[in-house]
Specification:
The strands form two sheets. The chain has an eight-stranded mixed sheet with strand order 2-3-5-4-6-7-8-9, with helices on both faces. The protein has a two-stranded antiparallel sheet with strand order 1-10. It has a single domain, classed as 3-Layer(aba) Sandwich (Rossmann fold), CATH 3.40.50. The chain is α/β, with parallel strands linked by helices. The protein starts with a strand and ends in a 12-residue tail after the last helix. About 30% of the residues lie in helices and about 25% in strands. The C terminus is likely disordered.
């Protein structure tokens, strides 16, 4: 049995907003302002679930407790109720619009961007093509390095064109990122990349009951690492699994 992260009652309520992507296309967004916020991160959802998926809600709630505000948003296909993800150019436009919105909401806060799986990869592609204004670093919650059972590093090729800090948080049982291949990618990125493995977690950060870990422990770890990294731009001593 796998236990997946679930939201708790938050200290900060999320405010619903609209983000204008292009003329005629506006998507929904949720701005969760943390008490005494010290950073703001734009979080894009994964391919199969939108910004209100329990994992996205849970991460935003935990980050609010850690002093990090979040702006979650819908990609246009999700807003329209479609199951087919947007073409990269459309996804990139939505990310840029969300980043612009975030910069206006909290101009004094350090700004970061990224997201879960597909959302994180689309954010890194957008950054590689043209730097996202004011964004200091990118965060990946389960970077989808390759499809299941089709190991490769092609999806990471564009990362070499990014020149701001990158944080990879990855489950040790993630079927979309074989450890040896991920280590190869991280080594190539050098000091720009920080990596934190979440023990016993899969691509959705679910953990097996027999692992002895709870979903709340996993969420706490993710939020703690995100908060520390955004504050300092680096991590402390990394666990053995992270070393390349």
């Amino acid at each position: 049995m796998v236990v997946t992260p679930q939201p708790m009652k938050s200290l900060a309520e999320a405010r619903r907003l609209g983000v204008r992507v292009v003329p005629g296309t506006t998507v929904s967004a949720l701005y969760q302002k943390a008490p005494h916020a010290r950073a703001l991160v734009v979080l894009a959802h994964g391919a199969g679930a939108g910004m209100t998926h329990p994992f996205m809600v849970a991460v935003a709630d935990r980050l609010a407790e850690a002093g990090v505000s979040t702006l979650r948003f819908q990609f246009p296909y999700m807003e329209a109720g479609s199951k087919r993800p947007d073409r990269p150019a459309v996804a990139h436009a939505a990310i840029r619009a969300a980043v612009r919105k975030a910069a206006k909401l909290a101009p004094a806060l350090p700004l970061f961007a990224g997201g879960k799986s597909f959302g994180g990869r689309m954010t890194s592609q957008a950054q590689a093509l043209e730097p996202l204004p004011k964004v200091r670093g990118l965060v990946f919650l389960g970077f989808p390095l390759h499809p299941p059972e089709k190991p490769s590093v092609e999806r990471a090729a564009h990362l070499s064109d990014i020149h701001i800090p990158l944080l990879f948080i990855q489950g040790t049982r993630d079927a979309l990122a074989r450890p040896a291949l991920l280590r190869k990618v991280l080594k190539g990125l050098g000091k720009r990349a920080s990596f934190w493995p979440i023990r016993d977690a899969d691509h959705s950060f679910g953990v097996l009951v027999r692992s002895g870990r709870t979903s709340q422990e996993v969420l706490a770890e993710i939020a703690d690492i995100l908060g520390k990294w955004m504050k300092s731009g680096k991590l402390g001593r990394r666990p053995a699994e992270a070393r390349t």
